[in-house]
Amino acid sequence: MPSQFPPLNIPPVPSRDSRFYGSSGSPQLNFWDRFRGKGRPHVGWTESAIAIARSSWLNVLLVIVPVAWALHFVNGISHIVQFIFCFIAIIPLCRLLDYGGENLALYCGKDFGDVIVVSANNAVEATLAICLLSTCQLRLLQATIVGTVLLRLVFVPSMHFISGGARIAAQDLHPHLADLNQTLLTTGVLSLLLPAAFFSALNSVDAGGESPNAVSDSVRGDLLKVSRGLAVLLLAVYLCSRIFLHNPPGSENGLHEHKDAPAEFKERAARMAEEDPEVNPWACLILLFLVVALMAPTAEFLVESIQPMSERHQIPQEFFGLILLPFVSYSAECILSLVYHVQLHLEHYLGTPLYPPKTLAEARSIELSIQFLIFWMPLLVLLAWVTNKPLSLLFDLFEVVLLLSVGFLVNYVTADAKTNWIEGVQLLALYAMMALTAWFYPGQPAVQTMLSCGSIQSFLAAEGVPPNSTFTNISFEGFHATLDDSQINNFTDRLRDLNKLYSLLKQIETGS
């Protein structure tokens, strides 16, 4: 018997992924609606506070933050004790930064959310850099910038490639993202090569045989103008790269819908659209602001506690800035990663099977280094301009060469959008080579002089250097120095006297 009622055509309920991206991947909601959480369950302030408090057991270490601050202002406390407490205090702050950034990214989508997470992960190093700028430790600031880029670009990816490729032949990178990162990295490194070439050309001997005086206020003024222009251009390049990456021309060209995008990358984007945040967006912003406010003095106290220890143990200044200081700032995140892996293997030992190996390589640290190189570094140059600090893009030539070599190897490793554990070993070996070389490198005194706060002529006069002097680098059996004209003349006179004395002693020996 036929039914008296016609069948009901009930349309299927669209998934949250289709509500956010649509069938073709184009955004259905504008940014403001997505940020306010339209289409997601409402999260109140009480629920947000409880979720933040329960986000990690490491939050119990937050009580160390005021203790670390108090120890800094107490006289007679060992620098080692101050360092230990500041180091422990940064660990929960780093975890809260990650938690707040990840929850805020759920409201902003995969594309813009990645920018937020990357910026949150760079907060420690950026805060440390601003602290060094405020105290006018410009040479140490430059070394720390280069060291941070090297750490994020070489050491961290090497660890991920080794651990991630231990159970799989090769892991994938997003080819579209890898290609863009290669060009951005090259652009950032070459922007440092130009001021170094400019300064080296002025220091070279001209056709007349005379060496121009490149260490002067006038040359530094020209370099500052060049650096500020380059900084504006780098910021424009970074901004355009974000627009191109997250809103490319044409249809179906987004990262999560690119035809060559790895399957696991697409799954992560879909999972992010379906996952419900635990904290409301305004609470995320307040959390990030408070954590950065707490981290700024803690990072400054950490640097102040480690500097006396480096001087006491005679750690070279170049090694301190290039290797030690960036590694200390990253070590809190390293501890978090170590705790996660220990917990994972402990669960496996107790009977829980390991997760299947990931096919998508973990290369977010490369994006961190690129952001620090072409966003934070030029931003620091412009901030120094506003605060009347002579920070330029004239870096030590040794550091520029390190960046060039690292950029070449990283671009070569990621060129095929695949990684494996042996490539991670190669990156780790390169980082060890750079650390070994940095231990014995004395630095470039002329560049350090150009970064001195105040007048260069006043600085040279305080050092006993006559005005309008030219400088020569001297290197002999482990002795390195940059000498002015009068010092070179005195040095030559002493050598001449020693030669005469040697000849006289030789004659006496022959006569006897």
UniProtKB/TrEMBL annotation:
Q: Any stretches that span the bilayer, and where are they?
A: 57-74, 80-97, 140-163, 183-205, 226-245, 279-299, 368-386, 393-415, 421-441
**Protein's name according to its UniProt entry:** Sodium/calcium exchanger membrane region domain-containing protein
Q: Which residues form the Sodium/calcium exchanger membrane region domain?
A: 285-439
The region called Disordered is annotated at 1-22
Q: Which Pfam families match?
A: Na_Ca_ex (PF01699)
Q: Which PANTHER family match?
A: CA(2+)_H(+) EXCHANGER, PUTATIVE (EUROFUNG)-RELATED (PTHR31503:SF20), VACUOLAR CALCIUM ION TRANSPORTER (PTHR31503)
The biological processes this protein is annotated with in GO are:
intracellular calcium ion homeostasis
